[in-house]
Amino acid sequence: MQHATVSPQALSRLVELDTGGRPVLSLYLNLDPSLATHIADRRTELDSLLLEAAAQARAEPGVEMEGELKRVRRFLSDDRLAVDGARGLAIFSCQNDRFFEVLALPDSVAPAVYLDERPIVSPLVEMVRSERWCVLTISSRASRIFVGDRDSLVEVQDILDDVHRRHSQGGWSQARYQRGIEKEIDEHISRTCELLFERHRRTPLDHLVLGCPPELRPRVERDLHPDLRARLVAGHFEIDVERATPEQAYRRALPLIEAYESACEQTALDRLREGIAPDGHASVGLDETLEALGEERVGTLLVAGGFVAPGFICPRCGHLAVSGGRCPIDGAPMRALQDIVERAIERAVARSVEVLIVRAHVEELQRAGSIAALLRY
């Protein structure tokens, strides 16, 4: 069986899965080579997770998961514990429903196992990024274009122009020669920017990061098409354009990507503060946010990284609430959940609501109850 990749489509399949209340095994396994160097370490981690799943099953009356656990163990032979390019695995299995899906994860993940009537998808939300990042590295004679997401980049084009090198002769001849060199550099930058815009027209880019010497940045910005200039993130980095590997280019660009994401978090939190005022377009805290989510008024759901909280769900209509008793919608007895935040995230994904897991400014959101929403109305 092939490992699928994390994508909006894969997340939708999991969110829309109807198991009729049958238990689903959700297992997250870390493959980060810096944390689990040897296959034996990963096998030990897997055994521990499966033992934990068996203990969870024994604690739930009427839940039989022996078949699920054997299925996972048979699938995860040693060669499947070392997936090229993957830093984690997510496995979802519901034997009675004949559902078994394996996702290769681009990021490392905390090892965990869950038994629930729904697949546990919250660890995947941050990994499903539809935005396309581009990194342009450029020197006076060479350019390279890398495209991907915030987790990895691939090189898609390189440009090398014949730009004459400076010489040390003095007088008028040196001045003319220098002007000729600068003209060639301008032509190289212009050609690079034209090729980049043509690629953007075919497949639009969301964000652009620039790697170049400081003296070239104003010249590159000047020649970028306005559509690309608007996508240029703040700052730049320096790199050996002709010798750097794609991984090195990604590592140099990553701090700028993270700074941009941090700024986006701050913008959302600033909007949240503005909307908290009476009659504002924001909700804060679990109770208010669940109510807004049930009324389909949420435009962006903000959740502090790692936040979990107990709650209740109506088994008939799916209404989510902090307190139990009877459902205010249909009067059915509410059922307790160990983590209602997971269900809130799942509900948001199913309704195409933007979900922002806040990590760079987590303390600020924690002061607002660790969960909040920007409302559509």
The first-level CATH class name of the largest domain: Alpha Beta
**What's the CATH topology name of the largest domain?**
Nucleotidyltransferase, domain 5
The CATH homology group name of the largest domain: eRF1 domain 2
Strand elements, count:
16
If helices are DSSP runs of H or I spanning 4 or more residues, what is the number of helices? 11
Q: What portion of the residues fall into strands of 2 or more residues? A: 15-25%
What would you report as the Rg, rounded to the nearest angstrom?
A: 26 Å
Note the gap between the termini: 45 Å
| Biggest sheet overview | 5 strands, mixed
Give the CATH architecture of the largest domain: 2-Layer Sandwich
What is the strand and helix layout of this fold?
Layout: E1 4-5, H1 8-15, E2 24-30, H2 39-59, H3 66-75, E3 88-94, E4 99-105, E5 112-116, H4 122-125, E6 133-138, E7 142-149, E8 152-160, H5 171-202, E9 207-211, H6 217-223, H7 226-229, H8 246-275, E10 282-284, H9 286-294, E11 298-304, E12 311-313, E13 320-321, E14 335-337, H10 340-350, E15 354-358, H11 362-366, E16 371-375
Parallel strand pairs: 1-4, 6-9, 11-15
Antiparallel strand pairs: 2-3, 2-5, 3-4, 6-7, 7-8, 10-16, 11-16, 12-13, 12-14
